[in-house]
């Protein structure tokens, strides 16, 4: 069975967990201690998570893992489109999210994990603006980008939005997500379209 070295709730690990669940791939998750990377280093030759071991292959880097899963599990639902134009659109969407939501997310997350003493209020405001933008975009949709095999775009929305809108299963599995909900300070019902849209992806994180 595929083994997954995971550091919850880091976004790169969250991304891989959602991909594995979306593709219905059985896996064994092995939690990594953030201050003890020896096992990861010994196994993969580097210290960063996530890492997977599958069919004799050891692979780190979340983006490489997502591509590997699509290439090696062809019977499972696809994350990425096959055609170049579709791939470019998905890459553009990633860039847009990186700029609009991942950037302001980071200082707030660093406050959550204790790396920054203060919560950067400007970043939090920009993060909320990004959530409001996404809430408008998903108002009447289950899929953010038109076309087949673009679930990666939805996964990427969930990757960043779940920190403010985590599902109960994610909070139960990873206690820090309860605190995350408080720190990212979104009220229930504030982004109701996004809450509905995230249900499926939050289910994958339970
Ligand atoms: N490009 C890598 C980055 C991996 C990465 O930065 N992992 C973080 C957790 S999200 C980590 O292990 N950091 C180690 C540390 O901060 O000590 C990926 O996408 O997987």
Please characterize this protein's 3D structure.
This protein has helices spanning 11-22, 38-44, 62-72, 84-112, 121-137, 151-161, 168-173, 176-184, 192-204; strands at 2-6, 27-31, 51-54, 57-60. The protein has a 4-stranded mixed β-sheet, sandwiched between helices. The protein starts with a strand and ends with a helix. The protein has 2 domains: 2-72, Glutaredoxin; 84-204, Glutathione S-transferase Yfyf (Class Pi), Chain A, domain 2. It is built from 9 helices and 4 strands; from the N terminus they run βαβαββααααααα. With 206 residues, it is an alpha+beta fold. It is globular and about 45 Å long.
What's this entry about, in short?
The protein is α+β, with helices and mostly antiparallel strands and 206 residues long.
Topology:
Blueprint lengths: L1 E5 L4 H12 L4 E5 L6 H7 L6 E4 L2 E4 L1 H11 L11 H29 L8 H17 L13 H11 L6 H6 L2 H9 L7 H13 L2
Parallel strand pairs: 1-2
Antiparallel strand pairs: 1-3, 3-4
The structure holds glutathione (GSH).
Number of domains: 2
**What integer value in Å does the Rg equal?**
17 Å
- Are any ligands bound, and if so which? glutathione
Order of helices and strands: EHEHEEHHHHHHH
Which term fits the overall shape? globular
Quaternary structure annotation? single chain
Please give the alpha-carbon distance between the first and last residues. 20 Å
CATH topology of the largest domain: Glutathione S-transferase Yfyf (Class Pi), Chain A, domain 2
Second-tier CATH architecture of the largest domain:
Up-down Bundle
Q: What amount of the residues lies in strands?
A: 5-15%
Helices, by number, come to 9
Residue share in helix: 55-70%
Low-confidence stretches at least 5 residues in length (pLDDT < 50)? none
């Amino acid at each position: 069975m595929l083994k997954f070295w995971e550091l919850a709730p880091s976004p790169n690990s969250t991304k891989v967990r959602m991909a594995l669940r979306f593709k219905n791939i059985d896996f064994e998750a092995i939690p990594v201690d953030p201050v003890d990377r020896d096992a990861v280093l010994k196994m993969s030759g580097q210290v960063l998570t996530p890492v997977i071991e599958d069919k004799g292959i050891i692979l780190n880097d979340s983006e490489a893992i997502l591509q590997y899963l699509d290439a090696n599990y062809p019977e499972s639902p696809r994350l990425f489109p096959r055609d170049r134009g579709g791939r470019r659109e998905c890459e553009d969407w990633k860039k847009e999210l990186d700029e609009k939501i991942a950037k302001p997310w980071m200082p707030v997350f660093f406050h959550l994990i204790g790396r920054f003493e203060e919560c950067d209020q400007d970043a939090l405001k920009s993060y909320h603006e990004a959530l409001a933008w996404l809430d408008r975009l998903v108002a009447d949709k289950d899929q953010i980008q038109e076309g087949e095999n673009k679930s990666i775009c939805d996964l990427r929305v969930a990757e960043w939005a779940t920190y403010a809108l985590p599902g109960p299963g994610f909070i139960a599995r990873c206690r820090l997500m309860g605190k995350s909900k408080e720190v990212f300070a979104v009220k229930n019902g504030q982004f109701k379209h996004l809450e509905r849209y995230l249900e499926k992806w939050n289910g994958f994180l339970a």
